[in-house]
Amino acid sequence: MKNIDSFGHVRGESLFVDDIITRHDTLFGLVFDSPKAHGKIIHVDYTKAENVAGVIKIFTCKDILGENQIGSIIPDEPLWSEKEVHFIGQPIAFIVAESVDIAKKAKTLITIEIEELPVITTAKEAKEKRSFINAPRTFKMGNTVTSFSNCDYVVEGETFSNGQEHLYIETQGCYAVPMENGNIKITSSTQGPTAVQKTAAKVLGVSMHKIEVDVIRLGGGFGGKEDQATPWAVMAAVAVQHLKKPVKLILDRHDDLRMTGKRHPYDSTFKIGLNSNLKIQAFEVEFLQNSGAATDLSPSIAERTLFHATNSYFVPNVTATIYCCKTNLPPNTAFRGFGGPQGMFVMEAAIAKAADEIGVDKIKIQEANLLTENDTFHYGQIATQVEAQKCWLSAKEKFELQKIEKEVENFNRTTSNFKKGLSLMPVTFGISFTNTAMNHARALIHIYQDGSVGVSTGAVEMGQSVNTKMLQVASKTLGIHPSKVKLETTNTTRVANTSASAASSTADLNGKAVLKACTSLIKRLSKVASSNLSVAEKSITFKEDTVFVDGKKSALAWEEIVNQAMLARVSLSENAHYATPVIHFDKTKEKGHPFAYHVYGTAITTVTVDCLRGTYEFDSVKIVHDFGKSMNIGIDLGQVEGALAQGIGWMTMEEISYNKKGQLESNALSTYKIPDIFSVPKNVEVIPLETKGNEMAILKSKAVGEPPLMYGIGAYFAIQNAVKAFNKNYQPKFHAPFTPEKVLFGLYEK
Ligand code: LUZ
Ligand code: MOS
């Protein structure tokens, strides 16, 4: 089945926040933000700006009737700065005017005096100055110290992975409208409708029921709208509370790039110990996460880094520590993979360095240490239904790895100005919010009396096609044609207390709730059909828009049974709640069973490096991926391809740059390069792993949003191998992204 948004998207008919037809009295907002990365606000003069014709009001912290606080995990982030600023782009005030142009003009007339304080931009610097968000955390299994002394090889090193801009096509935005009795309706481009509702209520000083949040769909989220869609919606809501007029705020691209946080850069150090049989005995790693100026989701992201510190490998002795380092950058935030990719990059670097020092192929070490059934993860979970080796071995076999290796060897022997590099990248990714309490969702289903169906869930559609999957679950469970099912907007008045659409878990959590609600409805309708047809209830099933008895089609159509239920005064609506069973985690011991299941896969990447220019092209990425029993292979393949391109972008070309003053230098698409159609691999092949699927996944179709991003890490090591093939003296830097400039330096370093 096609994504149900396909037609609307290509015809330009799909609605995003900025497409909503606005009320005639709508006002427009613009954020006034800090020009300095750290300092005390001495004075701000708004008078000239306020006098511009068409400026209605400039809001500051003084206008907040509730709390000036938007921090979700730790309350350390004001909506509008009061006395200090902590990053360039930090909101200080909110100009509301009759048009965006008027607001822009007013903004240029605001003058601000700031007494500057020292600026920290890197995690290393923050650690030296002991500038942290919270206490460090350590996950531990076995004893690395004693284990290292028994190892045949012990290798140490350090790595850096840079941040990443989300670059959703639709920038952050919202439209807030006053309703009656002081209620406010906010249409927001958020992954977390409840986060917006809760924070708006807190800042406005009203109850949550006063705030309705509606989400139609997002033009991309990637984690950038899990927490960071909230401030804009709340600003507009504060203005509505005072002005009693609708207020729209859409960030332009420059404002969005400057003011929002990104994927966290990480500085890491590792120590890995192996035996002569290439088995990894011990792994120690210290991650310095550049968290930015406020907590945001950083501690949760740090937690996922620790969970994925050993990627797809079994390591009996592990000590993994992370520091959330407070710097003067915009608060860094969720980004597809949520700290997992940063952790896995270090593990892959450690194995690559060990391979170099031992003098074996990295692939040999990887293969010798892949997870197997009943291995214990360092966080206590026992690995079951493990597909790590199966993915790896079938990738090797189906894509004829030996042949690829020969081709690369031959090419490199016979060509001098170009070199090829090859890498294998296994991925193991845990599915569930690492915070157990967040793993729940609800669905509200109405069967209308004509037999058509409306489905509301807590899932936010952001291009990942979750609505299509929800529709498939409903249509399959009710046994009716997909055209009879409509997905409603995501709205806090219909489905409350939602977790953000995140953690690759949205289809599982909300899908299970849809399944439960539809199953209850079918039970009710079966009862009606059983008395109508005078047959036993359990002989009844629903298929092909018809009631079936003992597997045979009856004359009773879906519409007819719905109508009869209506006449019999049977409820045609159902609300169901799903909470993932089994999972738990004890933070005092850092042990438990946090994930419903894991997703596995292996990617084989080959690249050709132009050794005169330092540029490169990816010949192919060949993947065996564990989809479980995919419920929609077209959509799932799309997720793999998109995630792969995004992962390759992070590892090779997307280079975020802040100067020493905390100013974003890569502040436009002319200085920040993301993969385009010319830079994605020429050939991407994905073979679904043959497997039974997992009961905890919706219809046994495994979560697919984030795991394939980490195949992109293979791109880094493929390039590294090509550079090594050209320059035997090259010392790997493990410093991502591996841009053409860095490749060129590598090719010619002595
Ligand atoms: N968001 C979150 C996530 O709040 N918790 C998670 O564990 C998570 N994992 C991946 C992506 N977003
Ligand atoms: Mo996320 S990184 O919003 O799943």
Structure explained in plain terms:
It is built from 19 helices and 30 strands. With 750 residues, it is an alpha+beta fold. Strands 3-5-1-12-9-10-11-20 form an eight-stranded mixed beta sheet, sandwiched between helices. A six-stranded mixed beta sheet has the order 7-15-14-13-8-30. It has a four-stranded mixed beta sheet with strand order 16-27-28-29, sandwiched between helices. The longest helix has 28 residues, at 506-533. The radius of gyration is 27 Å and the shape is globular.
Structural class: alpha+beta
Distance between the termini: 55 Å
Strand line-up across the major sheet: 3-5-1-12-9-10-11-20
Helix content: 25-40%
**Major sheet, described briefly?**
8 strands, mixed
Number of helices: 19
Bound molecules: pteridine-2,4(1H,3H)-dione, dioxothiomolybdenum(VI) ion
Can you give the mean pLDDT? 98
What's the shape? Answer: globular
Number of strands: 30
Query: β content, as a range?
Result: 25-35%
Which residues form runs of ≥5 with pLDDT under 50?
none
Q: What are the key terms here?
A:
750 residues, alpha+beta, 8-stranded mixed beta sheet, 6-stranded mixed beta sheet, 19 helices, 29% helix, binds pteridine-2,4(1H,3H)-dione, binds dioxothiomolybdenum(VI) ion
